[in-house]
């Protein structure tokens, strides 16, 4: 059997080589320039080091943060993206935990896709109201300086780092943080500062990511005039007719308009003369006609105010007062 061999011409070799190179080039372009620019997974750690995986859609990275934990200012996400894609900021980089934070994924072929953080705290609605410490006089709500206000409700975070109470002055919207005493999931006890200016106020409660402004307004006052036994202890135990002395007090003592003392022997009350009244001071005069002897009890009168009716206060002297000639 005779075999016939045919030679390829130079042009035939060139054509074959061109075809192979073209095929190789087409395959290389098709399989290397990936168009994918997706975030496949996005994971952060909570305050206890437990992983939280974001819910990913076409534009958002929704992170459901535990309600019993403080929400951090920053997070360090571990991110997986499409094959051969790049992301900025990169995986493992610290970023602000804000909804303005954006991530841009760039595919191998230059296609880009942007994702935004969406922060959701799994915290139930905060429900609170004032249940104690605010009284009513002549249809006006009021609270007393130095005393407590009780706020009750539901879903309060019992952590003073996460729960705060603010006093809002309705005249200028200035806010002042109040000191929290006791705190539980259903109640907050706060103290009004004795230096708080008189005015009309309301309360704002912040617990975790929830904020409630209690719309019930109330006045803040020092209350009705009052003289304590400690303040009375500052006077001399021996006085003479015609002698003057000054009482110092912080509970509107200057509003007192009548002051009397009781004689131990005859149980009669005798008025002292109010000589001068100015802020936190009351100056009294012992009348020339006051019988000499011992006096054991004092009583005083004050007029009505915006948040209280006219009234009387009384107490025993710590030490009996003696009037001598």
From TrEMBL:
Keywords in alphabetical order: Signal
Highest taxon listed in the record's lineage: Bacteria
Region forming the signal peptide: 1-28
Designated name of the protein: DUF5018 domain-containing protein
Organism: Pedobacter kyonggii
């Amino acid at each position: 059997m005779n075999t016939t061999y045919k030679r390829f011409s130079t042009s035939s070799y060139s054509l074959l080589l061109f075809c192979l190179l073209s095929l190789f080039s087409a395959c290389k372009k098709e399989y290397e320039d990936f168009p994918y620019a997706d975030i496949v997974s996005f994971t952060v750690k909570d305050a206890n080091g437990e992983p939280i995986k974001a819910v990913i859609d076409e534009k958002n990275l929704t992170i459901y943060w535990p309600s019993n934990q403080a929400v951090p200012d920053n997070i360090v996400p571990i991110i997986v993206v499409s094959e051969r894609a790049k992301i900025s900021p990169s995986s493992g980089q610290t970023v602000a935990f804000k909804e303005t934070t954006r991530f841009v994924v760039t595919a191998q072929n230059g296609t880009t896709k942007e994702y935004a953080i969406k922060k959701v705290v799994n915290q139930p609605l905060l429900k609170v109201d004032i249940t104690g410490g605010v009284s009513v006089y002549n249809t006006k709500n009021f609270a007393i300086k130095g005393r407590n206000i009780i706020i009750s409700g539901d879903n309060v975070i019992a952590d003073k780092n996460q729960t705060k109470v603010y006093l809002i002055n309705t005249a200028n919207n200035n806010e002042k943080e109040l000191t929290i005493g006791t705190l539980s999931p259903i109640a907050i006890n706060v103290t009004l500062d004795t230096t708080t200016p008189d005015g009309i106020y309301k309360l704002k409660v912040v617990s975790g990511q929830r904020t409630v402004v209690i719309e019930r307004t109330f006045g803040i006052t020092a209350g009705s005039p009052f003289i304590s036994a400690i303040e009375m202890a500052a006077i001399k135990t021996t006085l003479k007719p015609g002698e003057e002395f000054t009482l110092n007090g912080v509970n509107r003592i200057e509003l007192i308009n009548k002051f009397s003392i009781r004689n131990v022997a005859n149980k009669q009350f005798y008025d002292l003369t109010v000589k001068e009244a100015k802020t936190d001071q009351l100056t009294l005069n012992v009348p020339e006609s006051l019988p000499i002897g011992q006096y054991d009890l004092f009583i005083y009168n004050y007029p009505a105010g915006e948040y209280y009716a006219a009234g009387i206060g009384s107490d025993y002297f710590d030490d009996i007062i003696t009037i001598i000639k």
